[in-house]
Each structure stands twice: as C-alpha cells, then as structure tokens.
Amino acid sequence: MERKEKLLQYLQKNPGWHTSQELAVEIGSSKRTIKNYISQLNSRNNLIESSVRGYKYNADKLISSSSRTSQNDIPTNKEERVNYIINFLINNASTVNLYDLSENLFVSETTVLQDLKTVQAKVQRFNMKLKKDGDFWHLIGNERKKRSLLSSLIYEETTGTFMNRSIIQDNFPDIDVTSLRSTLLETCSSNNIYLNTFDLNNVLLHFAIVISRLQTGHLMKQNEVTKITDKKVIDTQAYKIVSIIEEKFNVNLEEPDRKELTLILQASLSGNNKVEDDISVETKNLVDDLITYVWKTYQIDLNNENFRERFSLHLDRLITRALTNKVEHNPIVSNIKISSPTIYECAVLMAHRIGEKVGIQIEDNEIAYIALHIGNAIAEQMSDRQKLSVLVLMPQYYDNSAVLSNRLQSQFSTYINVKGIISDPSQIKQYAPNVDILIVVNSNYIDHNISTVNISQFLLVEDIQKLNIAITTKQHQVKKDKFQESLLSFFDSNNFVKSDKFKNIDEVFDFVSSKLEKQKVVQSDFKERLYQREQMSSTAFGRIAIPHSLDMSAQKSKGFIVVNPHGIKWSGGNEVYLVIALAIDPNNKQLFREVFDELSDIVTDINNVTKLIKCKNYSEFIIKLVELL
User: Fold this and answer.
1) Cβ(185)–Cβ(370) below 8 Å
2) Average pLDDT in the 274-282 region?
3) Residues 461, 591 within the same domain
4) Separation of CA 389 from chain center
5) 193-212: per-residue pLDDT in tens?
6) Does one domain contain both 43 and 76?
7) 167-178, pLDDT tens digit by residue?
8) Do residues 344 and 153 make contact, with C-beta atoms less than 8 angstroms apart?
9) DSSP conformation letters of 424-435
10) Residue 478: inside a domain, yes or no?
11) Computed over its alpha carbons, how large is the radius of gyration of the chain?
C-alpha cells in the first residue's frame, strides 16, 4: 500500500485530530512529507482539516450528490476499490479512465491497474469482458449479466446482519443503545410481545433516530405527521409500550413522534396488528413500483410483507420531510457508502425513482435510510432461508393466538419463523407453498401436503416434544433437498465416469482438468493448482478423494466424479475408489463449504463408500448420496 493511501486510510478509520509527528511515525515518513500528502489529498476537495492540533478527516465536508464519485467517499482498501469501480462501470457509461480513477481514489496508477485486473477477473465470472483501449477501460456485457453481477455484489455486502446493536451504538455514540435495547425488551416482554432479531433492531434504530433528533433540537410539528397517522390505525397496546419506554428512558416525545414510533412497533408485532390495510393507496402503488424496479435492475427480490410495511411507513414520512424541506440527520451515511457501496447505489436508484414519481429531491441522509431498509430486508431473507416457515391454524374463538405465537417464537426462535395465524383451513392456500410446518391447535385436522403437528393451546411438555420431532424431521428433509439441489448444480451427468482405466492420480487429474477446461469451467493451469493443494496434504479420506485447488478461481462451479471399483493410486500412498473433483468460483464460497462438508461427512464411513461405488450411473449415484445424508 502506498504511503499516501495509508495516510488517508488511517485518518478515515481513526476519527479526531492527529499530529504530524504521530502520522509520520504511523506511515514511516517525515513530517514534511505528511504536509505534502495532505496538500495532494486536498487538491480536489478539502476532506482533511488542518489546525494547530494537527489533521483530521472530515466526512461532513463531502459534497452532497447521488453519485459516489462526486462525493469522494473514498474506498480504503482493495476490495472496496474493486466494488467501487464495478459499480461505476455498471451505473454510468460502462467506461472508466485510468487517470480519473487514480485521482478520484487517491491512489497511484499502478494500484488502479492492479485493481482493474481484479475487476476483469470478477466480471469474467459473469461472462463479461473488461476491454482496454489506451487509458480507457470498457465493460462489455449485456444488461442481464450486469444485473446478475450487481445482485451478487449486494449479497456479498449483506452477510446476514446488516444492522445490530453494536452498529447502532457506533453511529449514535451519545445514546446508551444497550440500555435502550434492554428497556425495549423488558417492556415488550411484560406486555407479552415477542420481537424477532430484525424487528427488534428495526425498532431500536428508529428509537435511536428520534432520540438523536430530539437531542439536537429537531422537533416534529403536528402538521408534519404522515398521512398514515391521520387514519385510525394506532394500536393501543403498541402506543402504551412506546409511552412506557418514553417514561423509563426519560425522554419527552412529541405526539407525532410517539404515533410514528407506535406504527413502527405495530408493524413489527406478530398476529393481527399489521398496518398494511391502512397504508395509503398512493404509497402502496409507489412501493409496488419500487419493488418491481429493483427486481428489474438488480434482480433483488424485496417483495415480502415485512419490507412492504416497514418501508411504506418510512416512505410516507420521507415524502413529508422532503415536501416540508426537513432533512433527517443520518450519522450512518458515510459508513454505508463505504462498507456497502452496491446497496447504497441501489438506494440511490430508488431515491431517484421516488423523486421522479413524487416530484421531490431526496438528500444523501435519506438515501442512507433507504439503504438500511434494503440491507435489512436482504439480511432477513438470508436468515429466513435457514429457518423453517410455520403457519398456525387456530380456532377464531380463542383470544390468545398472539400469546401462543409469541411462546412458539420464544421457544423455537432459532429454528422457526411464524408466518401467520389463521382460523380456517381454506386460508392455507394464501401461504402455500412457502410453509414448512402447519401447527394445528385443538383440532385433529391434517394437511396431507404439509408437515402437520397437532398441539394444545397451552403448549404443554408433550406439545413441545411433538414440535421438536417435527422440526428435526423437517430440517433433515430440507437439508437433503438442498444437498440434492447443490449436487445437481455441481455435477452434470456428463461429468460422471465409472471405469477401471484410471490407475493413478495423474491420469485422473489429466482427464478431469482437460474435460473441465473444454467446458470453460477452469483455466489451463487447473491441473497444477490441484497438485499444489495435494502437495500440502492428501485430499484422500479413506477410500475416497475430494481434490480441489487452494484458491477458488474457476469460471463457474462444477464437479467431476470418477469411480474405479478396482482402485486408484493416490498421493500419500493411499488407494481410493472414488474421486470427487471440485472446481469453485469465488462467488460460491458458501456453496462449496456446504457441499464439501456434507460430502466429507458421508464418505468418512467406509460402508457409505461401498454403497456409492456400486452405483452404475450418474442418477443412481446422486440418489444414493442424498439417501446417505
């Protein structure tokens, strides 16, 4: 890393004043050099303040614009720069200039060239090309491929938790977020309310926003209340909870804020407290348009109830603020731009669309809040994929459906999400086929298309045992289904060979590498990469081998199966009967881990290997693998 780049990164990641002596020691240069670097970094925008106390990075001086390039939210490492360049190529004119990039990113031309090589490798995995023409680089690829790449980047940026207590605390340092969270949890618990992780963080964030605004003297007037709050949608229980938290946390909310927080909390409650029916038609139509727009542009699916309600509430208030020229301060804006540039760009496009439809100008602070909603929605989707979806069928004359729902979520929150409570079997079709388990209360009803568990309304010990068995059984079935899907995507029928002609590891590597190269899965050096991994430690597990390269450099993820019932001489003096070679592209790291782990578990049992090598063809082999899981 160049010293100037290292200096900028240090100032960005360490807020506050730093003396020239401290900076000189940090990057290994003279104080005079530090002064020159600061001058160069400030040549375009005065991002670094100077005073008798030294120097500090000032993100507040960034120029407001919908483009990250004009704002100079400068990436601080290679990964961020690569994503920045890809976003620029896709969202602008598909062309970048080497020297412009160097100037905008505050790094040398040599560093940018290295970054462009990484970009080139990344876009190639999506069957696109980065073509050099003098000092200009052009992205060649159709719109569908570009959208697939953007979608991949967004999921890379969302690792499962986009917003949590720690992140909120970092961005609202003047608020005791831990205490606020405890107060919120205690109040909800005493009122028999259960909030899942994402709902809790969403409510917590909005409380922090309101409190932060109150601390800086930004009061919300009655005429700034959203269109939603004019409707009779305020739930008395949610309103009571907000009032209790207000008192316990010693804040004085204005009535519009109190109502707004009530609606946000109300939208997060399980059961029948949803506010969707009371959202204005204009807002519903706009949200529908935005969801369709994001899908077409990024292939990101935001079409779910939680996102609709949370974002609809936010959107109404956002429009009100924009129409009255009230800008919502967002201390998280700079962090989001740098840590999640693709999600931020998605939010920029949504903001532009909203502006066109409503006739308003949306500022950066508001765009960052839109990015939060997008990021949380994607993170929640990723979490939901790991949980079972549960539907509760309960007679309407019981008035404790919410109590049961909360007990179920509290008892099994790690494994299930209660998607809804219905009173009549005819309503099941509204949720099917996205239901894993149907819980039927005080009835012998059984749905033959869905795993059904019949329990009492009291959730007794025997009911919990029934549910544990049903959840474990369904989890195993889901795991097998997912494993089969992964196997079918990894291994084509053309990539299965059963033959006694392969005598040793070299013959297998020659054959597999040649086949995968012809299929444009790997480069010509794949055999060398396999041996590089093999030299570190044999990939044999008993009588089976799972060779793969150390790095994940394939153009796409594919595997090859070789079976020789008479044995193949392998490295380390091993003899194997089954070889499962894997070629993985970097965008499938998690998929590789899942498949590799499952395969390893299966083939460590010699009895399983015996069964597998008896399989006569591809179909029989895949079916047997899934059976053995």
Assistant:
1) no
2) 67
3) no
4) 19
5) 667 666 777 788 778 877 87
6) no
7) 777 767 788 888
8) no
9) SGGGGGGTTTS-
10) no
11) 28
